[in-house]
From TrEMBL:
This is phosphoserine phosphatase. It is an enzyme of class 3 (hydrolase). Its EC number is 3.1.3.3. GO terms for cellular component: cytoplasm. It comes from the Bacteria. Binds 1 Mg(2+) ion per subunit.
Length: 200
C-alpha cells in the first residue's frame, strides 16, 4: 500500500506569507522555511511583526481568499488522487488552509492551528505534533503504508528522506546543491511521472 505525502506551499499553492508580505507592504514577512529551518522560531518572529503592525487573522484571510493554486496544481493533484492515496502534510494552519483546500477539490490535509484572541489578534500557534512531517510519515509507515514524499523546503527534507521515494519540487538552488542525491523537478508532469514510477 502506497501513500503520497505532499507539502502545500510552494508545491501546490503560492507561499501564503510571501503573498501577505507583498499585499501588506511588510517585506520581512517574506521569510519562509526555505530561509529559516527552525519553524518555531520563524512563527514567533512572524507573530511579533503582526503585533507590531496591528494586523490579525482577518487581514491574512482576506489575502488568502485571493490566492489561487499554482497553475497545473489541481490537475496534477486530481490525476495523482485517481491512482493512489494522497495526504497534504503542511506546517500551515487550518485557519489559512480551508479556502485553498476548497480550490484544490478538498484533498486531505494534516496541519496545525493558530491561537486567536477575540479581537482577531494571532497570539500563538499549536503544532499538531513535533516534527509533524517526519512523525506523520513514520506513523503511516507503522500502519503498513509505504510513503512517497515531495516538498520544496528545509522542513520537508526529513519526510522526503524517510520515504521509499522522495523528490524536491521547485526547491531553492541551495537546497538542491546541499542534497544532490534527491531528484529535483520543476514541472508537475515530471513529478507525476517520478511518483508513478515509484508506485510500481
Amino acid at each position: 500500500m502506497n501513500i503520497v505525502c505532499l507539502d502545500l506551499e510552494g508545491v501546490l499553492v503560492p507561499e501564503i506569507w510571501i503573498a501577505f508580505a507583498e499585499k501588506s507592504g511588510i517585506p520581512e514577512l517574506k521569510r519562509t522555511t526555505r530561509d529559516e529551518p527552525d519553524y518555531d522560531k520563524l512563527m514567533r518572529w512572524r507573530i511579533g511583526i503582526l503585533k507590531e503592525h496591528g494586523l490579525g487573522l482577518k487581514e491574512i484571510q482576506d489575502v488568502i481568499k485571493e490566492i489561487d493554486p499554482l497553475p497545473g496544481a489541481k490537475k496534477f493533484l486530481d490525476e495523482l488522487r485517481s491512482i493512489t492515496q494522497v495526504i497534504i502534510i503542511s506546517d500551515t494552519f487550518t485557519q489559512f488552509a480551508t479556502p485553498l483546500m476548497e480550490k484544490l477539490g478538498w484533498p486531505t490535509i494534516f496541519c496545525n492551528s493558530l491561537e486567536v484572541a477575540e479581537n482577531g489578534e494571532i497570539t500563538g500557534f499549536k503544532m499538531r505534533i513535533e516534527n509533524s512531517k517526519l512523525t506523520t510519515v513514520k506513523a503511516l509507515q507503522s500502519i503498513g503504508y509505504e510513503t512517497i514524499a515531495s516538498g520544496d523546503s528545509y522542513n520537508d527534507l526529513a519526510m522526503i528522506q524517510a520515504s521509499k521515494a522522495g523528490f524536491l519540487f521547485r526547491s531553492t538552488e541551495k537546497i538542491k546543491a546541499d542534497y544532490p542525491n534527491l531528484p529535483a523537478f520543476e514541472e508537475y508532469d515530471d513529478l507525476l511521472a517520478a511518483i508513478k514510477s515509484a508506485l510500481n
